[in-house]
Amino acid sequence: MNHACRLTDPILAVYVLILAAGFGFSGFAFSQVESASGADAAPDSSQPVQFRTSRFEIRDEFRDLQGGGTVYMIVPRVDLTANSDLSFRIETPIVFTDAGTPNNDTESGLGDLLFRGSYRVARGAGYAIVAGSELILNTATSDDLGTGKNVIAPLIFASIDLPQYHSVVFPFLQYYFTLGGDDARQDVNYASIKSPFLTRWPNLVYTIVEPQVIVDHERADKFGLTLDGEIGRFLNRDTAIWVRTGLGLVGDNLPEVYDWKFEIGVRFFLN
After folding, report:
1. Rounded mean pLDDT of the chain?
2. 261: which residues sit within 8 A by CB, 6+ positions away?
3. Rounded CA gap, 219 and 48, in Å?
4. In a 3-state reduction of DSSP, which class is residue 217?
5. Is the model's pLDDT at 48 over the cut of 70?
6. What is the mean pLDDT of residues 245-249?
7. What is the DSSP code (8-state) at residue 163?
8. Cβ(41)–Cβ(84) under 8 Å?
9. How far is CA 27 from CA 22, 90, 93, in A?
10. pLDDT value of residue 52
């Protein structure tokens, strides 16, 4: 595999130390970044998408893939805020795959590193608009653990407060395309359109309903649809736990569409 960049053994060791220290998580190299999360349901959140705090998360995720095979992920995520408008993210997934074949081929190792920068470009009474981009690097230690490509993924989303429903809606658009990598692997070229709907409930409970539409331009503009649901609870103002499940509804043989998934995670706020 002709990688544009590879993690060396020393970097692997540093990664393991960071994970052991508890730096937290969420997402897998092939997956899209969330536009909404339990962080947006924090008890003292009074404005939509105000990057009020740095945080880290740890999530375990299991995906049952189309055509057989499974993926299990432990994905650390760190979100760092420079100020109330600017935020940065790093994700460093550990991935375990099972091809589902009779000889039980399995792979495990690091997936593709993800970096994200987000900036709140506008805000008003009950709304905000955020723009940014992700860079996903071809760092997977095995072919089955990543896309084999370096990917850039500009994004824009809004947060719209609906106080009468104790909710916030996040219309979201992101476009993924290849910036080089392994020439033998298929390019990445698709749009993701999501509209997470987050609701705060009594007793520090929140829910998220998140439909997602995929348009894969690399595969003749083939259409896909997934639907995720999440329920979480704040144990205190600095710690939250959640469970999420999802179904692939439309889109046979699209890599962005799973048959089903399940995840569980914990989030810690740093300040």
Report:
1. 83
2. 61, 62, 63, 64, 228, 244, 245, 246
3. 36
4. helix
5. no
6. 97
7. G
8. no
9. 16, 10, 7
10. 56
pLDDT digits (tens, 9 = 90+) for 132-153: 999 999 999 988 899 999 999 9
pLDDT of amino acid 265 = 96
Cα separation, 155 vs 170, in Å, equals 12
Q: How many residues does the chain have?
A: 271
Q: How confident is the model at residue 19 (pLDDT cuts 50, 70, 90)?
A: very low
Cα 73 from Cα 95, distance rounded (Å): 5
244, 258 Cβ separation under 8 angstroms: no
CA distance 69 to 145: 13
Domain ranges within the chain, ordered by starting residue: 9-190
Collapse the DSSP code of 41 into the 3-class scheme (helix H, G, I; strand E, B; otherwise coil) and give the result: helix
Structural contact between residues 216 and 222, judged by C-beta atoms closer than 8 angstroms: yes
* pLDDT at 75 exceeding the cut of 70: yes
For residues 215 and 221, give the distance between their C-alpha atoms in angstroms, rounded to a whole number.
Answer: 6
Distances (CA, A) of 236 to 4, 41, 135, 200, 208: 43, 12, 33, 15, 19
